[in-house]
Amino acid sequence: MSCELVDRHLDSYVDRELDLESAKAVGEHLKVCVVCRRRVAERESLGRLVQSAPYYPAPDRLRAQVAASAGHVKTRRRLFAWAAAAVVVLAVGGGLSLLQSDRGSDTALIDEVIDGHVRSLMADHLFDVQSTDQHTVKPWFLGKLDFSPPVNDLASIGYPLVGGRLEYLGGHPAAALVYERRRHTINVFVSPEREGAADPATATSVRGFHVHHWVHGGMSYWAVSDLNDTELIEFVRALQAA
Amino acid sequence: MMAGNASGDRHDTARRFREAALPHLDDVYTLARYLLREPADAEDAVQECYLRALRHFDTFRGPEMKPWLFAILRNICRGEFVRRSRAALTIDGETQEDADAVPLWQEPALSPEAQILHQRDANTVRRLVAALPEPYREAIVLREINELSYREIADVVGVPVGTVMSRLARARDRLQAVLALSPLGTLR
User: Fold this and answer.
1) B22 contacts in A (CB within 8 Å)?
2) Burial per residue of B67-98, b for 16 or more beta-carbon CB atoms within 10 angstroms, e otherwise
3) For chain B, percent of residues with pLDDT exceeding 90
4) Which residue out of B38, B43, B140 would a mutagenesis test of the A interface target, given it has the greatest number of A Cβ atoms within 10 Å?
5) Nearest Cβ partner for B169 among A10, A69, A71
6) What region, left, alpha or beta, does residue B75 occupy, with left being phi > 0 and alpha being psi -120 to 50 degrees?
7) Strands A161-169, A172-181: pairing kind
8) Gap between the Cα atoms of B12 and A137, Å rounded
């Protein structure tokens, strides 16, 4: 047996795609040829190296959209989004423990906030008004709400405002302001503060979504996103300071 | 044809499709990320892939769902996305490689230890793979990352098994050559 055999079959041998007989012949040759042994070893190392290249789990939002477009409509698709989100949390690991520990009396409202966020991503109803201009978005709410939500663009620090829409939160109308960070969407729900409606400062993580609540200038704010929490906190601080 | 039955069938088809196809979403998305360099394009391509797959699900005869989805995705990536993505597939892979080649060995000097770590960094591998001409890149990703057999790769790409083999060999030769050129690119 000669090195030509390995020339011809190196990759199919390494990939275990070679027929038994040829594989045996290659194996025999490798016993006596240090050069070919080295070539095989290099190929195997390369294989391990390439297999360490990144694997990309589908983003939550894509999963929800694909599930929705594949017939998961109306009542069922919402359920599926929750299931998908839960799976993501499980995959990330440990996320579910937050479900129990961090949730207080605001649970129902937090659920509504996340629900509103997921619905906006899935139903392709992110915007009633789509604009990166805060001077377009703010007047749009006039006449649709009995309050005027503060609207600030944070594009200068990498969180551009992309639009707004009407939402209902706790049975009351709220302004939903939509921001983007890379491919992640941040929903901010703004409504007048109501006595005892929610803890003034709440931060929690549920099913892979991070939620922050604060009260400022008589307004109640909820920020929700699947963006990582570090960046979401940066965003919240910038919005509080705006 | 009665509307009620048609709607029921459609519902049933959609359910079977979801059960068969959704578990492969991560694999399909990963392939898209390697075929198209912009994540946004990859997302769009995957969405379109699942739409088409559902539409043609009744023509799916198996045996494996994953290669079938890959083949659809690949057609999409070669079609409309070729115009949209600068990184899209080109027939003339050689030219593309010249433009996209990543000269690893020209990176700022690091300490030997750091270089080893850097060398093994997953993103470095990604860039090496991304710099391959398209037919090689596709073959190596389908093999090493999506873990398809030669036969399955041949079906997805629409070439004979022998072509798959030679593309894999060339892809690996090139990767080894680039690694050998980098300062501490010796494989162990």
Assistant:
1) 63, 66-67, 70
2) bbbbbbbbebbbeebeeebebbbbeebeebbe
3) 34
4) B43
5) A10
6) alpha
7) antiparallel
8) 43
State the DSSP code for A58: P
Residue A229: phi and psi, rounded to 5, are -65, -30
State residue B120's pLDDT score: 56
A145: DSSP letter: B
What is d(CA B91, CA A68) in angstroms, rounded to the nearest whole number? 35
pLDDT bucket at B71, cuts 50 / 70 / 90? very high
- ipTM confidence score: 0.72
Q: What pTM did the predictor assign?
A: 0.52
For residues B182 and A29, the answer to whether their CB atoms sit within 8 Å is no
Burial of residue A203 (number of CB atoms within 10 Å: 0-12, 13-18, 19+): middle
Q: What's the confidence (pLDDT) of residue B125? A: 83
Whether residue B63 is predicted with pLDDT greater than 70 in this model: the reply is yes
CB atoms within 10 A of CB B158: 10
B33 neighbors B42 (Cβ within 8 angstroms): yes
Q: Is the pLDDT of residue B38 over 80?
A: yes
